[in-house]
Write a structure and sequence with these properties.
The structure is a homodimer of 236-residue chains. The first copy, chain A, is built from 11 helices and 6 strands. The longest helix of chain A is centred in the last third of the chain and has 15 residues. In chain A, helix 8 crosses helix 10, helix 9 packs across helix 10 and helix 10 packs across helix 11. In chain A, strands 2-1-3-4-5-6 form a 6-stranded parallel beta sheet, with helices on both faces. The N terminus of chain A is likely disordered. Chain A has 236 residues and is of the alpha/beta class. Chain A is elongated and about 60 Å long. Chain A folds into 2 domains: 166 residues, Rossmann fold; 55 residues, Arc Repressor Mutant, subunit A, CATH 1.10.10. Helix content of chain A is 52%, strand content 12%. The interface between A and B is large, with 36 and 37 residues. Chain B binds a DNA duplex (30 and 30 nucleotides) through helix 8 and helix 10.
DNA sequence: TGCCCACCTAGCCATATGGACAGGTAACAG
DNA sequence: CTGTTACCTGTCCATATGGCTAGGTGGGCA
């Protein structure tokens, strides 16, 4: 599927590329998106030290990312999925960008590791996934050039995680729905099923139904653990 | 790697300067401690841009911080409390440093905000507390010089939090004990009271007792919320 | 010595929760 | 039209949980 396009881009350079605007000798143009200044400056400093890479813009919100991609048409987008209070939004953003700008490769630079999010991201066209806490300084530049070449980059442990996820029991399609997430957030705030029911205008039965589904999807059977896993997964 | 060495050479090293002492015109010597490279490089880049500030060393573990303070005797330590898997350890470190090196001011650069941790840190001699996600680039340099002058620096919202904590119902001494933390972690893993009891060799009654105390101390009454708050407080 | 504190235990009771059953609806895609 | 998906509802039952009162222990400290 996409692989054709990717190797295509690397293989022969097309001088007439409409949005590409990059010659064989120009640098990899990077857009850095993170809500945290320190991270932005850090990533910028690291990448500017790497050969063949140039940071062309920064963004701090989902909308700003779209605008910046529109304006700069970067080769690689280095982004933290969590740019607002909603990781799901970040996933949607990735999908939108891979659809509208197939040339722009996306590399996630995440704070937390979650099987759930990683697999979802991959399905939406993300080609790199690194953990802020794990990356070494020199890895980052290399990783950016690698994803630009259309190859997939995974931080240590992440690859195994995905493989495990794909090959294991849950056939991985277990998407947490909006409603379930809504319930989950209320659970984390300590509301009882009855209170949650009143809060979202459904019966207690329905709340329990959603919780059962969440239990299955997140592999838990206790709401305390549910909150813990969901937090680790960046859902809360 | 090379980065540290290089800027050590570039930043003026003066072995002749006695620990913690400095002439009126020399720069504020800073030690940056964070497990994350990106953060370290980012903070370094920001601080080196600020006038009158020089980063003299970096550290990534609790032990390395001690060593680096021993060796460099920095004026200010910019540190994330969470350098291992245990925030408590970071708090102890702060106390140790304020005792052994009273000249060295400590500024926390935290990932998460927790009334609990902030107040504890203050009691252990920390004079600054900023949130990574909140700081603006220019604030950081200013903050470092401010704490060096012995003034207290609090990120927006943190000051209010402390004031609220001190002036409110709980007369602030509500320390979470080791045993309680132990129980809390098991709760987060989804164990029932009975299982926890078996796990730590006490009766179910005792587990419930600890949970009641946790409920009071963290201001919660549902274990799901307990896990949520504890996570936000960096206890898990 | 007496006090405080972390820790441990017991019993009681109302309510919450988890798990299983067995359904119904609307929206949407092939 | 048919299948799928998210969503919703109900009933039943065993067990877990939260909240309370009322104790006992050992160690550290004034």
């Amino acid at each position: 599927m996409n692989d054709a396009v990717r190797s295509d881009q690397r293989g022969e350079i097309r001088p007439d590329v409409p949005l590409g605007r990059r010659s064989p000798h120009s640098k990899t143009r990077v857009l850095v998106a993170d809500r945290n200044v320190i991270i932005r400056i850090g990533v910028r400093a690291i990448l500017e030290r790497a050969p063949g890479v140039a940071v062309v813009a920064e963004a701090t919100t989902y909308d700003a990312v779209i605008d910046a991609v529109d304006e700069h048409g970067p080769d690689v987008l280095v982004i933290d999925l969590d740019l607002g209070d909603d990781t799901t939004r970040g996933l949607q953003l990735c999908e939108e960008i891979t659809n509208r700008y197939p040339h722009t490769k996306i590399m996630i630079l995440a704070s937390t590791l979650s099987e759930f999010v990683v697999v979802d991201a991959m399905r939406r066209g993300v080609t790199g996934y690194l953990l802020k806490d794990d990356v070494k300084a020199d890895e980052l530049g290399k990783a950016v050039r690698t994803v630009q070449d259309g190859e997939v980059v995974m931080g240590k442990g992440i690859g195994n995680l995905v493989a495990h996820s794909l090959g294991s029991h849950r056939e991985m399609g277990e998407h947490v729905t909006d409603r379930e997430l809504e319930v989950l957030k209320l659970v984390a705030r300590g509301l009882s099923n009855k209170q949650i029911a009143a809060d979202i205008y459904v019966t207690e039965s329905t709340v329990k139904f959603h919780l059962q589904n969440l239990s299955r999807k997140l592999g838990s059977h206790r709401r305390a653990e549910l909150v813990h896993k969901a937090t680790a997964a960046g859902l809360l």
